[in-house]
């Protein structure tokens, strides 16, 4: 069981991993904690945004949408590899997913198929939204992929987790396809190498 990192420790974990961090004003207290618990945390979830344009993407993830209030994640990773901090605490990113997947993440074992949506993931996962259209054609620049790897590894390092604590939204919630453009197996291998 892991207690969520404070805003200061979250920022420090990312910068200590060598990431370039930008802070959106008020991110340290921007959350959805009034809607449910935040923690214990068990892992990191990676998404793509389905958008383009760094500034508008960051603003969307901070503000949310009419049907889904922000923050929509904890950090937005833009194409240039910058991690924009938009929230600290419960965020609307994971939604309902498979409790069997959560148990596998906690045990750091191979993930089962996600065939149920019976567990609130917003309570248990840090979330990174990555600027990408998610159409399978929009490129993932090397700087962005390296930042995704470093951001996930930073939180694993801070909590003493292995790469098996990092999942994609598509591995959590039936019907989701994100992140699209690389495989989570490939990303976990890179994270594992970084954590050695």
From TrEMBL:
Protein name (record)? N-acetylmuramoyl-L-alanine amidase
Alphabetized Gene3D superfamilies for the sequence: Peptidoglycan recognition protein-like (3.40.80.10)
The GO annotation for biological process reads:
peptidoglycan catabolic process
* Pfam annotation, one family: Amidase_2
Q: Name one GO molecular function term.
A: N-acetylmuramoyl-L-alanine amidase activity
Q: Show the InterPro entries listed in the entry.
A: Amidase/PGRP_sf, Amidase_domain
User: N-acetylmuramoyl-L-alanine amidase domain spans which residues?
Assistant: 27-180
Q: Which domain of life is it from?
A: Bacteria
């Amino acid at each position: 069981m892991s207690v969520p990192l404070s805003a200061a420790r979250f920022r420090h974990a990312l910068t200590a991993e060598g990431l370039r961090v930008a802070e959106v004003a008020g991110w340290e207290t921007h959350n959805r904690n009034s809607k449910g618990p935040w923690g214990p945390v068990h892992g990191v979830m990676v998404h793509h945004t389905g958008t383009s344009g760094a500034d508008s993407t960051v603003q969307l993830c901070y503000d949310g949408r009419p049907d889904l209030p922000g923050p929509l994640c904890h950090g937005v990773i833009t194409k240039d590899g910058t991690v924009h901090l938009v929230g600290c605490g419960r965020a609307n990113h994971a939604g309902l997913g498979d409790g069997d997947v959560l148990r596998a993440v906690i045990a750091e074992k191979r993930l089962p198929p996600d065939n149920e949506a019976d567990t609130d993931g917003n309570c248990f996962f840090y979330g990174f939204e990555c600027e990408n259209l998610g159409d399978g054609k929009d490129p993932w620049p090397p700087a962005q992929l390296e930042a995704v790897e470093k951001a996930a590894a930073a939180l694993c390092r801070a909590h003493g987790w292995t790469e098996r604590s990092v999942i994609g939204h598509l591995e959590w919630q039936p019907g989701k396809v994100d992140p699209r453009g690389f495989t989570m197996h490939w990303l976990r291998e890179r994270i594992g190498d970084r954590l050695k």
